[in-house]
Amino acid sequence: MSAAATEDGPALQARAVTRRFGDREALRGVSFAAARGETLAIIGPNGAGKTTLLSILGGVLAPTSGEVSRDPRDVGWVPQQPAVYGKLTVAENLRLFARLEKVADPDAVVARMLEQTGLADRAGDELGTLSGGNRQRVNIAAGLLADPDVLLLDEPSSSLDPRQRARLWEFVGALARAGTAVVFTTHNVAEAERFADRVLVLADGELLFTGTPAALHDAVGSQQADFEAAFVAFLRARGH
Ligand SMILES: Nc1ncnc2c1ncn2[C@@H]1O[C@H](COP(=O)(O)OP(=O)(O)OP(=O)(O)O)[C@@H](O)[C@H]1O
Ligand SMILES: [Mg+2]
User: Fold this and answer.
1) Less Cβ crowding at N or C end of the chain, within 10 Å?
2) CA 213 to CA 195: how far, in whole Å?
3) CB-based burial label for 42 (10 Å; 0-12, 13-18, 19+)
4) Residue 4 pLDDT more than 70?
5) How is the chain split into domains, by residue range?
6) CA of 50 to the centre of ligand 2 (A)
7) Class of domain 1-70+149-240
8) How far is the CA of 81 from the centre of ligand 2 (A)?
9) Which pTM value belongs to this model?
10) Exposure of 231 by Cβ count < 10 A (0-12 exposed, 13-18 middle, 19+ buried)?
11) Which residue's CA is minimally distant from atom 14 of ligand 1?
12) 76 in helix, strand or coil?
C-alpha cells in the first residue's frame, strides 16, 4: 500500500469525468467513489463507456474534463486484451512489466506474484501455450506488480470456464479482504450481484445508478425474477 492511501478517505474517486471522441460523448459527468476493500461492478450495455471509464481511472486515457483522485501509479489496470507477449515465458512477461512499472526489486516482486497467483509452476512456460484462465492470471499478476491500492479489471471473467471463474472471484475476494479496492466490469450481471458490494449502472456514458444489487432490484419493484431481469427492467425504465 502506498503512503498516499488515506485511512478514512476513499481509495479512488472520480469527479464529473467526461470523455469525448469527436462528436461522441462516451462519458457524461461520471462521479463515484470506491472505499478501501470495496468491490464495485460497472455494468451496462455494449458501448456504455465501461472500458473508457476504466482506461481513464487507470491513467491510460485522459478525460476531456473532470478528475480522478488517485495517481495512476497507485492503480493497477488489467485490460480485457492483455498486453502480454506469447513468445515470452510467464516469468519473462512479468519481469518486463515489473521493469516498465519501475518496481524497486523486479525479481523479488515477480517471485511474489507468481506465488500469489498460483503460477509458480508455470513460470518457465511460454505464455502462448497457457490456457485462457492461466493467461488471465498472468494478466492480473501484471496489474498487481506495483502493489496498487486499487485494481481495475475489464471483463476479467469473460473467457473463463466456471472453475476458473470461481478461482478468479476467490482471488479477487482475498485482495479486497486485504484492503484493495477492486473495480470490475462484466456482462455477467449475476456475477456482479454475487461478488460486488455495489454496482454502477452505466448506459450511453451516463451513470444511472450506484448502490447495492439489492437496492437496484428494489428500484424496479419486486416482481422481477432475478437480478438480470431487474437490471434489464431498470435499463428499459430509463429508456435504454
Ligand atoms: N478510441 C476511440 N475512438 C472513438 N470512439 C471510441 C474510442 N473508444 C471508445 N469509443 C466509443 O466510446 C463509446 C464507449 O465505448 P467503450 O468501449 O467504453 O464501451 P464499453 O461499455 O466498454 O462497451 P463493451 O461492453 O462493448 O465493452 C462507444 O460508443 C465507442 O465506440
Ligand atoms: Mg468494454
Assistant:
1) N
2) 10
3) buried
4) no
5) 1-70+149-240, 83-148
6) 5
7) alpha beta
8) 10
9) 0.93
10) buried
11) 49
12) strand
